[in-house]
Amino acid sequence: GQSLEQPSEVTAVEGAIVQINCTYQTSGFYGLSWYQQHDGGAPTFLSYNALDGLEETGRFSSFLSRSDSYGYLLLQELQMKDSASYFCAVRALDADKLIFGTGTRLQVFP
Amino acid sequence: DAGVIQSPRHEVTEMGQEVTLRCKPISGHNSLFWYRQTMMRGLELLIYFNNNVPIDDSGMPEDRFSAKMPNASFSTLKIQPSEPRDSAVYFCASSLSGAKNIQYFGAGTRLSVL
After folding, report:
1. Residues of A with CB below 8 A from B104's CB?
2. Chain B CA closest to residue A30
3. Residue A86: DSSP 8-state
4. If we measure between CA atoms, which residue out of B19, B13, B2 comes closest to residue B76?
5. Peptide bond preceding A7 in cis form (omega within 30 of 0)
6. How far apart are CA A35 and CA B60, in angstroms?
7. CA-nearest residue of chain A to B30?
8. Run means of pLDDT, 10 residues per run, chain B, 114 residues
9. Is the separation of the CB atoms in A34 and A93 below 8 Å?
10. Which residues of B64-93 are buried (b: 16+ CB within 10 A; e: fewer)?
11. Are the beta carbons of B113 and B38 closer than 8 angstroms?
12. Number of H helices, E strands in chain B
């Protein structure tokens, strides 16, 4: 089977740095993606890693270690608007579809 | 580009009624996905199409659910008859064949079955 694990909730203050971890168990692997979803909104794509290492996109970075079946999303200089749910998703045995984790709810406090 | 367009945004219906959700993918995208999101079960893939052909419908809960994609710019998800446990937010997403990690989601349809 395929499964992803991520923390259910993370809290932080404005200006801080937060890391959201994701571990996965899959048959085959074609990449790890991250999506953001605000309350009442739709998931939106943030970042993608196919190979090991760090991908940086502005204040957000994503890391992947395929040997550890592990990745994380790093959010820097947190802002109130970053309060949202964050989902990791893998392309696995069926490379056409994504399997989403259960999501991590990030609350940013002033 | 207008993005993925879903209609209606909200649907309230009574148990036993037929519900039809609609989706227009981004022009040029050849993969389309239907998801259901609930607090209990998270984001579940129901079915997806490549080039208008259903590829994997293993996530469709039961025979009450059906989906069609008659052309590249339109898809429907139908529930008949609807039940209260079908209440959820239903998302449609589309992607390009060369960038399958990046799915673009519509705003969703919030379905309430009374």
Report:
1. 45
2. B101
3. E
4. B19
5. no
6. 23
7. A96
8. 92 97 96 95 93 93 94 97 97 88 95 97
9. no
10. ebebebeebbebebebeebeeebbbbbbbb
11. no
12. 0, 11
Instruction: Name the residue in chain B with its Cα closest to that of A50.
Output: B101
Q: Where on the phi/psi map is residue A15: left (φ > 0), alpha (ψ -120 to 50), or beta?
A: left
Query: How far apart, in whole angstroms, are the C-alpha atoms of residue A76 and residue B113?
Result: 41
Q: What is the DSSP letter of B81?
A: S
DSSP code string of B54-77: EEE-TT--STTEEEEEEETTEEEE
Would you call A100 and B108 a contact, using CB atoms and an 8 Å cutoff? no
How long is chain A?
Answer: 110
B31, B93, B101: residue with CB nearest A31: B101
Find all residues with CB under 8 Å of A32, minimum gap 6, and list them. Answer: A22, A24, A48, A49, A62, A64, A71, A88, A89, A90
**Are the beta carbons of B42 and A94 separated by less than 8 Å?**
no
Question: What is the Cα–Cα distance from A76 to A96, expressed in whole angstroms?
Answer: 31
Mean pLDDT over A81-88 rounds to 98
pLDDT tens digits, A26-71: 888 889 999 999 999 999 999 999 999 999 989 999 999 999 999 9
The answer to whether the CB atoms of B43 and A103 lie below 8 A apart is yes
3-class state of residue B49 by DSSP: strand
